[in-house]
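Recap from last week: sequence in, structure out.
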Amino acid sequence: MMTVWTTRTTMADRRPVVSARVRIIGWMFGVLTLALGALVFLTWQVLAARADDSADDELTHEANKFRAFAASPAAASFQRPEDLLDRWLQSNLPDDSEALFTIVNGNPYHRSQGSPPARLDTDAAFVRRLAGATEPAYGWIDSTAGRVRYGVLPVRIGAQPVRAQLVVLEFRDLIAKPSMEAARALVIIAAITLVLAAGASWLVTGRVLAPIRQLRTTAERISETDLRRRIDVVGNDDVAHLARTFNTMLDRLEDAFVAQREFVDNAGHELRTPITVIRGHLELMGDDPRDRAETKALVLDELARMNRMVDDLLVLAKSDRPGFLELGEVNLTELVVEVVAKARPLAERAWRVAATADATILADGQRLTQALMQLVSNAVRHTKTDDRIEVGSYLDADGSVLLWVADSGPGVPPEDRERIFERFARGTAQRRTEGAGLGLAIVRSIARAHGGDVRLAAGPGARFELTLPAGVEAE
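Predicted C-alpha cells:
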C-alpha cells in the first residue's frame, strides 16, 4: 500500500509540469494573437476607409476639372456636346486607376485613351441606367477589377436638351492596392511574430521550469531516501529565490511581449497608444453622466489624434512616390503673406512678414504652404504670448530659394538639432507637446520632394530654413 501511494503521488506531480509549460505558452500566444489581430484589423479598416475617401476625392477632382474646361473660352466654340467631350477625352489622360467614357443619345460613344482596368462602357444595363441622367449623379458598382466609384455628368450645349453624359470611373481596389499590400505585409509580420514568440516562449519556459523540475527531483529523492529531511519554503531560501527568478523571467517575457507587438517601426506603437487609452477609459466608464461626458470627450480627442497621425503617415508614405507634387507657378511674396494670414488666428504672437522675394517659382504651392504651416505651428507651441514669429523668403543670386520661419522662443538644444527631423522624434529637454513627432519629418519630405532640404539655422530662438535648389524659377 505504501508503494502504490508513492507511485500515484509521483504521477500526479509529473502532470502539472508539462501542463504549466503549455498553459504559459497558450496564454501568451492567445493574448498576442488577439492583440496583433485587433491591431491588424483596425489598420485594415482605416486603410480601407482612406481608400474610399481617395476614390471620392479623385472623382470630385475630375468633375471639377471637366466643369472648369466646359466653362473655359476654348469650349465655347463647340456646337455639339460630343465634340466637347471628344476634346476633353483627347486632352485628359486618366490615371491607371481611373477611366472615362461618354454616352451620346443613350449609347456608348467614346472612351479615354489606354486600356481601362474594366470595360464598363460595354455593360448595357449600366449604360442604360446612366443615359437618362439630367443631373450629376454618383454611386458604386462592382466590376471585374473590383469596386468602382462612378460619377455621371450630363452635358448640355446652350438651350439644347441633355443628350450626352460624361462618365468618370475610379477603381477603388486599384487605388487601395498599395495600402492593402502594406496591410498584408503587416499580417505576414504578425504571423512571423507569433511563430517567433511561440518559439521563444517554448525555450524560455523550459529554462524557467527547469529549477522546478530539479526541485521536484530533489523532493522525490528526499522522500525516497530520507523521510526526515524537509524543504523549507519560508524565508530567503532556494524556493523563495526561485520565485524571485520566476518573477524576473515574467518581467523579461513582458518586455519581449511588448517588443513583439510592435510593428516594423514606431508607427504601430503610436497607433496603439490612443486605442489603449480609449479602451481603458471605456472599460472604467460608469453610469454617471459627467463621467460619461468626460470619457466621450477623451475618446473623441484620441480618435482625432489617431486620424491626424494616419494623415501624417500617409503624407510621409506618399512623399517618395511619383505624383506627390503638383507643380505650378508660385509667387513667393503671395506665399509668405498667405501663410502669415493663415497663422494669425493660431495664437497671439507678434507676427511679421520678413523680407520677401518678388519672384515666381515652379513648385507645389499647397505642399510648400503645408510645410510652412507646420513650421509655424511648431513655433507657436514653443513660444509665449507676444513672442515674435516671422515668415520670409529669399531668392539667391544662383537661383536657389530660401523660405524660413523664425521665432524668439527658447530655441532647440544642440543635442536635438539633428534628431528632431527624424520620424517620431521629440526634443529631449523640452516638455512633451501634442503630436506624434511627425511634423518636421513631413517638412523634410516636402523639401526633399522639391529637390531641396530643411535645416535649423544657428542663432537665438529657432529659425527653420527650407531651401529649394536653383533652376526652379518659372518663366
